[in-house]
Design goal:
This protein is α/β, with parallel strands linked by helices. The protein has a domain of about 190 residues: Protocatechuate 3,4-Dioxygenase, subunit A, CATH 2.60.130.10. The protein is built from seven helices and 16 strands. The longest helix is centred in the first third of the chain and has 22 residues. The protein is globular, with a radius of gyration of 20 Å. It starts with a strand and ends with a strand. The structure holds benzoic acid (BEZ) and fe (iii) ion. Fe (iii) ion (FE) binds next to strand 11.
Amino acid sequence: MTTTEAGSPTAAGSGSAATDKFKNERVTSDTSPERLAAIAKDALGALHKVILDHGVTYPEYRVFKQWLIDVGEGGEWPLFLDVFIEHAVEAVLAQSRQGTKGSIEGPYYIADAPTLSAECELPMRDEDRRTTPLIFSGQVSDLAGNGLGGAIVELWHADDDGYYSQFAPHLPEWNLRGKIVTDRDGRYSIKTIQPAPYQIPTDGPTGAFIEAQNGHPWRPAHLHVIVSYPDKRSVTTQLYFRGGEWIESDVAMATKPELILDPVTGDDGINRVSYDFALDPV
Ligand code: BEZ
Ligand code: FE
C-alpha cells in the first residue's frame, strides 16, 4: 500500500502493487476457442439478463463504464477480482479434491519467502511481539495419513493492524511470511501472532463499489497457507478463527466451516492451535 502523509497505506498503493506483481507473472491458459466462445456467450448472456431484469438505465451504464476505467487506472483489478470472483473459481477446483479444503489465494501472496525449519518463528517486528502470540502447529500428510517429511508450508498473513508486508511500505520485506519445511514426520510448529480482521482498502474504486451499496469491506482474521509436496496436489487455503468477527459475512465469501481454527490461550498468554493438512494425489 502507498503511505499517505498521515502514514496510512492507501488502496491505490496496494492495488497497483498487486497489479505489478500479477503482470510480472504473464499467465497463460490452454482454453480452446470453442470453450472460450461458450464461456463468453454465457457470461455476456448473464450480464444482458441482469440489465433487462433490473431495467438498467443509460446513466447507470455510463457510470459502470467510468467505474471500469477507474478500476483499471487505479490498478485494482487483482483486488476487485480476488474479492468478488475468485471464490467461485476456487469452488470449481474444490469439486475435484478430497483432502484439505482450499480457499482463495487473494492478491497478497509473494513467492520465495525465507525458508524456515519445521519449528520456527515467522519474521516479525518488535511491535508485532507486543500483540497476541500464536503457535500454529500440525502435520502434513497424504490422504492415507502418511506424514510427508519435507513438505512445504508457505504461510503469510496480515499483522495486528490488518496490513501485509510488501503491500504496506512501513513493514519489513518478509514480515509475517515464511516457507516452512516440515520435519521427517511431516510436522511443523510455527510461532507467529494472531492476525486481525482485514479491511479491503476503501479509498479506491473497489471501496467505492462497496460503499455505494452500503456494504462492508471486512474479511475475518485469517492465515493464508499454500501446502505442497512433490507428486501431490498443492492446496491453497485460508484458516479462520472461531467466533471471529466477519466470519459469517466475509466480503470475499471465502470462509468454509472446515477451515475454522479453535485456538486455546495458555497461562503464558500464548494462543495455540493445531491443524493438519491432507494432500490429494496428483
Ligand atoms: C486477502 O487478504 O485474503 C484478500 C484480500 C483482498 C482480496 C481477496 C482476499
Ligand atoms: Fe488475506
